[in-house]
Amino acid sequence: MRHLNKPAHYINEYARESIAFVLAGGRGTRLGSLTRVRAKPATPFGGKYRIIDFTMSNCINSGIRRVGVMTQYNALGLISHLQRTWGHLVSERGEFVSLLPAHLGTSNNWYTGTADAIYQNLTLLEHNSAEYVVILAGDHVYSMNYLPMIEAHAKSQSDVTIACIETPAKYADQFGVVQTNHEGTITQFVEKPKDPSPYVQEDGNVLASMGIYVFSRKALIEMLEEDHQNEHSSHDFGNDILPKALHTHKLSTFRFRDENGDIGYWRDVGTIEAYYDASMELVAPVPRLNLYDNQWPVWTYQEQLPPVKLTHDSEGQHASARDSLISAGSVFVGSRISRSLCCYNVRIDAGSEVHQSILLPNVHVGKNCVIHHAIIDEGCEIPDGIVIGEDAEDDSNRFSITENGVVLVTRETLENL
């Protein structure tokens, strides 16, 4: 079967007529301390990437090279990353990544919702001729060519097309859920239903919104202008715009499939456990998210760092690593690592053991440590001899720990030891 994510080597008519808005300003409170000092889209993922790199790479690989990114909370690191990663676009060709902090909007206030964020930046749309507006979240992990969705939107003459994925009904309260007729036209849209039973399909799944929308330009402006005038609105696409549009516009679905026709890979890494699980999926022998696909590269900024080094300690104990992802600049001295993911500039000293864990950039693990089933935040210095992930009661007294036993270690919690 043809590769659905084959990048656009030339800009086709749908790419030329499209502009993308990436919503990247949410607090990300469900990620706890991981987003205390950084925006959720700027959180490291996959060793060398940031979460937003996946959405941005999907845009560029799809040939959509006019992109506005709306930032808000803890935006400094995110803005710096975007400037360094996407500064190569050629403005003379009409290509750009525009950073749109909330204070630059028309109301000079914080964005009050996803729809308000777009409304405050309609001037970007007014200054660029584009028939199709692709609205994306900057905090999901997936690979997707947006052009087939835009093409389907155009051919169906829809006002809005929503990308959807089949999801077990027990997770329905985490998503917007849709119902359709046999033509794929949406007949109902409910945001995070507490009782999903009316929306369950024969296979036991619900059809969940991925937070990926294609709007026709005129329809989007009409909806946003009307919503802005409604003082009772929360100015959110899922809660306000889309449910109301069902009665006035044509809404369609686009079911996300991979090149084999199976349900596509898409992860909302909005909680500690979801972030941990998605990261652990990457160390599988054949992960569903293929970071090695030359046909669909994930672009990012990376420092110029030396190669990974595994060496023996002073007593001749050799370092070993298996079933793991290890990024540049990392050094393991007489230590053992298995089924783990190390970002760049990680050092693990003699006698230490790391298993089923995620070590974010610039982590230093001291001598004779044991780290299991944990996430070690960026810049942490783990003292010699510490044991993490072996005793849940002990861990809960020192660090944050999830229901499934994932231990989150931050610099702040280490300082309190």
From TrEMBL:
Keywords: ATP-binding, Carbohydrate metabolism, Glycogen biosynthesis, Glycogen metabolism, Nucleotide-binding, Nucleotidyltransferase, Transferase
Annotated catalysed reactions: alpha-D-glucose 1-phosphate + ATP + H(+) = ADP-alpha-D-glucose + diphosphate
Protein's name according to its UniProt entry: Glucose-1-phosphate adenylyltransferase
Quaternary context: Homotetramer.
E.C. number: 2.7.7.27
Annotated pathway: Glycan biosynthesis; glycogen biosynthesis
Gene that produces this protein: glgC
Single GO MF annotation: glucose-1-phosphate adenylyltransferase activity
Boundaries of every Nucleotidyl transferase domain copy: 20-282
GO-annotated biological processes: glycogen biosynthetic process
Pfam families: Hexapep_GlmU (PF24894), NTP_transferase (PF00483)
Function (record text): Involved in the biosynthesis of ADP-glucose, a building block required for the elongation reactions to produce glycogen. Catalyzes the reaction between ATP and alpha-D-glucose 1-phosphate (G1P) to produce pyrophosphate and ADP-Glc.
Binding site for alpha-D-glucose 1-phosphate: Y111, G176, E191, K192, S209
Similarity remark: Belongs to the bacterial/plant glucose-1-phosphate adenylyltransferase family.
Glucose-1-phosphate adenylyltransferase/Bifunctional protein GlmU-like C-terminal hexapeptide domain residues: 306-409
Domain of life: Bacteria
Residues carrying the site annotation Could play a key role in the communication between the regulatory and the substrate sites: Q72, W110
Gene3D superfamilies the record matches: Hexapeptide repeat proteins, Spore Coat Polysaccharide Biosynthesis Protein SpsA, Chain A
